[in-house]
Amino acid sequence: MNEVTLPTTQKTQRTANTRKVFIKTYGCQMNVYDSERMGDALAGDGYQVTKNIEEAELVLLNTCHIREKAAEKVYSDIGRIRKIKEKNEADGRRLTIGVTGCVAQAEGKEILHRAKAVDLVVGPQTYHRLPQIVARALSGERVVDTDYATEDKFEHLPKPQRAQVISRGVTAFLTIQEGCDKFCTFCVVPYTRGSEQSRPVSRIVEEARRLTQAGVREITLLGQNVNAWHGEGPDGREWGLGELLFKLAKLDGLQRLRYTTSHPIDMSRDDEDSLLAAHRDLEILMPYLHLPVQSGSDRILKAMNRHHTADDYLRAIERFRNVRPDIAISGDFIVGFPGESDEDFNQTLSLINEVNYASAFSFCYSPRPGTPGALLKETVPKEIASARLQELQALLNQQQYAFNQNCVGKQMDVLLEKPGKKPDQLIARSPWLQSVILNDSVGKIGDILPVRIIEGSPNSLVGEVI
Ligand code: SAH
Ligand code: SF4
Ligand code: F3S
After folding, report:
1. Which of 2, 70, 311, 423 is deepest in the core (most CB within 10 A)?
2. Is 290's C-beta closer than 6 angstroms to any atom of ligand 1?
3. What is the dihedral angle through the alpha carbons of 318, 322, 328, 334, rounded to the nearest 10 degrees?
4. How many domains does the chain have?
5. Could you tell me the pLDDT band of residue 269, with boundaries at 50, 70 and 90?
6. Which atom of ligand 3 has the smallest separation from the CA of 26?
7. Which domain holds residue 175?
8. Per-residue pLDDT tens for 209-243?
9. Which of these ranges, 285-289, 389-393, 443-447, has the smallest mean pLDDT?
10. What spacing in Å lies between the alpha carbon of 454 and ligand 3's midpoint?
11. How far apart are the first and last CA of the chain?
């Protein structure tokens, strides 16, 4: 009798003990990675990640402070979640609300004053303390932890379970570097993420192995300046990104590697340099380079504290195109930085014409509190900045469409990534990071298959399996 009832009782208990956490991610890929690691940190306390906020006991908003709009969005979301909290409380259920990420770091306890419904605030350096912080919040304290922790958070964060990795799909992010020491005058990242820290090779390889053993086929290495990564190698020497790529390329089961975001001043300068060699020699390294330039005007680049000229940037791209002619270039642009004249803006358009981008992100300048840019007086009127952004985006969209159109008729290997919207449809990823829609239900997720591209639209491709 006991033998029959015991497992049932255990199962019932487990279900009753399962707590649900809802995590919303704003901002960059580093936040996507961190949100997963926060889920891993809380799993030890019985929390399961849910996509349904209504059933959550804990809501974490993993925020972004990069532009005013991104930061303000959090407060309107908190307003909505507060209503759910009040409704739950009326039903006798508790909902704990936490703000994490870069707004948490930048605004700290101000958030508690501005948003009464928030129970905890945790900056990006201390997610490994999350279980204790949540426990303190549950005992009634309103907790703020925005230390620039001296310990390496990655060393203290629990490793994800195999099942968790599998549930996240066949592509994965892996943060290899945190923080930034560049201090571009428009940017909050050096303040929100702290100084640049590179993880050691052994830890990165160990994490990549765990991912591939659980079925991950494509890994994107992450860092705010990923090409400045310089981690300790197993030989005690400092390694560079190229060397790391050569090492990871040997991992069993791994089929594709990418890295993002790179800074032009840390790009390789000669053919003997290993990052160029990696692009020349490693088939596993995808022919794609995200290299933000922000502006094509040397005057504005100087005011932005970027430490390079437009020509330095163009030469860097040339070096990579020389070793890998099919490499796709993507970038980031800011228009309307203080002092930007029509002439400066036209230089940005010329640079875009010279590079010919496969994709890009572009933004109107947003002055951020605490950055040197926010003190500059020569601001560009909003209407002018918006008009420039429209013109710049029209050109970038045209280049992206042309890049996609140019793929029509070509064959390429794509990674089957996830189900599409229609039955039998699959979404795959091209080597150049394009979404490829496949309507013939051939192959399974995680396979790499040769396809012929039959259609190219502004944002995706359609392919047929060969
Ligand atoms: N580390 C990367 C970029 C990180 S932030 C680099 O050095 O390029 C991502 C992008 O947001 C930046 O490339 C920039 O284009 C944009 N951005 C950052 N701060 C901004 C601001 N204050 N206003 C508008 N766009 C901004
Ligand atoms: Fe920001 Fe500049 Fe650092 Fe990039 S390099 S994160 S833009 S300060
Ligand atoms: Fe935003 Fe922080 Fe990333 S400010 S862009 S979430 S590093």
Report:
1. 70
2. no
3. -10
4. 4
5. low
6. 6
7. 166-286
8. 999 999 999 999 999 999 999 999 999 999 999 99
9. 443-447
10. 37
11. 58
Cβ contact 267:229 at 8 Å: no
DSSP code at position 139: T
315: left (phi over 0), alpha (psi -120 to 50) or beta: alpha
Question: Ligand 3 test: best mutation among 35, 68, 192, 196, most atoms within 8 Å of CB?
Answer: 192
The Å distance, Cα 141 to ligand 2 centre, comes to 35
Mean pLDDT in residue range 114-143: 95
How many whole angstroms separate alpha carbon 36 and alpha carbon 52? 16
- CATH code, 100: 3.40.50.12160
Is residue 319 situated within a structural domain? no
Ligand nearest to the CA of 290: 1
Q: Ligand 2: distance of its center to the CA of 304 in Å?
A: 10
Whether 27 and 128 map to the same domain: the answer is yes
Quick one: 336 and 420 in the same domain?
no
Nearest C-alpha neighbor of 231 from the set 273, 178, 161:
178
| 292 and 396 together in one domain | yes
Looking at all shown ligands, the one closest to residue 181's CA atom is 2
Q: Which two tokens stand for residue 121?
A: 């605030």
The pTM is what? 0.94
Supply the CATH number for residue 239's domain: 3.30.750.210
3-state secondary structure of 235: coil
